[in-house]
Amino acid sequence: MRVLIPFLFVFFAASSFAAELVPLRHNEHLGARVQANELPDGFRRDLTSGLTNRLMIRVTLHRATQQLHTRSVQIAVRYDLWDEKFIVTTQLDGVGADTVDLTDVQQVIQRLQEIRLPELFSMSAVPADSDVTMRAVVLLNPIDRERMDAIREWVAQNSNRSSLDPAGVLGAGDMSVSNAIFNRIFEQYASGSDLASAWQRTLTTKPFRAHEMPKEAR
Predict the structure, then answer these.
(1) Separation CA 98–CA 121 (nearest Å)
(2) Is residue 215 in some structural domain?
(3) So what's the pLDDT on residue 158?
């Protein structure tokens, strides 16, 4: 667990993620585009750490207060230290949909600043005579419930200052940050979430008529 605190600091080092969710129609599918103006502070550095970074996106389709459909998207970015390239893999509902190799960190940033998800919902499953909305919950490097339970146990066993920082490496500010991270994650699990992250954003489209939208050329 010695690596736990630095690992969680990656989550906390995030500035505002000014993003917008835009619906799109591609062939006979309803999709979405996540347009982001800014990624978390330090994310560019984290990409070359050798660890796999994951962006999880849960997209739901709604008619008024009724949830109609949901899809889960995972975008994993791994830096191959040997070949000096980034491997970006996109999965839809746990199935590998697309893998690309990128040679420059800026290419990865640009790809994540505008994420196209063209085939989320079949148009045949989308109401044709009423407005709908899409909602996306975006999480960076989420922690699943099993790992969170292990972290919770570790925190309980190391709840005092001397146990968490026996060498006195962390200052009072750092300890405050780590406590805030744990509290934020624990609150998400208390509300019944299956995944939790210290960094997350929720985006919602304006109401729209999917069958009246023009089809995108690509």
Answers:
(1) 17
(2) no
(3) 60
Q: CA 204, CA 112: separation in Å to the nearest integer? A: 18
Helix (H) or strand (E) holding 165: none
Q: How far apart are CA 208 and CA 11, in angstroms?
A: 34
Does residue 214 belong to any structural domain of this protein? no
> Quick check: 132 and 68 in contact, CB under 8 A?
yes
The residue length of the chain stands at 218
What is the bridge-based pairing of β-strands 29-36 and 19-26?
antiparallel
Q: Is 184 helix (H, G, I), strand (E, B) or coil?
A: helix
Question: Which regions in the chain score pLDDT beneath 70?
Answer: 1-18, 37-38, 97, 143-199, 217-218
The answer to whether the CB of 131 falls within 8 A of the CB of 68 is no
Domain that holds residue 198: 4-209
In a domain, 182, yes or no: yes
Among 65, 74, 70, 63, CA closest to 120:
70
**pLDDT digit string, tens, across residues 88-147:** 999 998 887 689 999 999 999 989 888 999 999 999 999 999 999 999 988 877 765 555
Number of folded domains that form the chain: 1
Rounded to whole angstroms, the Cα distance separating 69 from 60 reads 6
Contact 18, 203 (CB under 8 A): no
Residue closest to 188 by CA, chosen among 180, 178, 198:
198
Taking the whole predicted model, whether its pTM rises above 0.90 is answered as: no
CA atoms within 13 A on the CB side of 125: 14
Domain annotation covers residue 46: yes
Angle at 13 between CA 9 and CA 17, to 5 degrees: 140
